[in-house]
Amino acid sequence: MTPLQAVAKPDHVPFFITGPGQSDILFWIVALVLIGAVLAAGILFFWLHSLPERMVHNRAQFDIVAVLALLSLFTHIHAFWVAALLLALIKFPNFSVTDVSGPLDRIAKSLERVVDDRSIEEAAPALPAAKVPSPPASASAPEPTAVLTPKVKHA
Question: CA–CA separation, 84 vs 139, rounded Å?
Answer without folding.
Answer: 88
